[in-house]
Fold this protein.
Amino acid sequence: MSDLHGGQTKVLLTSRREETWLGKIYRRVELRGLRLNEAQELAVRVLERAEMEPNDIRVLPQYNDLLEYLCGNPLAIQVILPELKHETPEDLLNALKKGEATFGADDPHQGRERSLSASLAYRLETLDPSLHQRLGVLGLFQGFVTTITLELICKDDEAPELIRGLSNEAWGRMLDTAAEVGLLRKVAPGLYTVHPALPWFFHDRMLAAFPQRI
């Protein structure tokens, strides 16, 4: 990196941490969450993708307090806003705040606001309990995950009973469900990308589901 300093080459490095190892050779630009008007625009798109009719979106109770609580985090907005199909903004906000109390302090350098943790946990809890636990296996992955790899893990004789013998097809159905609630993104049959903010979240779930079998 130091060899490029002062030259014509431009380098853009994105990180959730302060990369102090780079020394003083870079200019740091801190990125924050979406502004309220941007969050509102994303919220409408998320609700449309959740198959809410335009008239139903227009008559929703005011949910700016919910958006402000989510700190303009696009992932949190995508995960939580579909819940407005069957929860009022006030009830949803209260539930998130109640769940937030179980998490530690914000860690903005890791992209870990408590509001995001509470949002992810809330949406995960809406899934079938066994699916909720099995998704803890995703704590082993960063960037992407394939159902074929998961099937290979499950074929091992030492695989935990909770996942032992699960097939490629079974994992496809489970990961499709996780993608539907915003925890993953499906890019091809059997191939899913994992948001950079999620490995730590799934890792905590993995420790809870398989404490003696990591």
Notes: The first helix runs from residue 36 to 49. Residues 104-111 have pLDDT under 50 and may be disordered. The chain has ten helices and three strands.
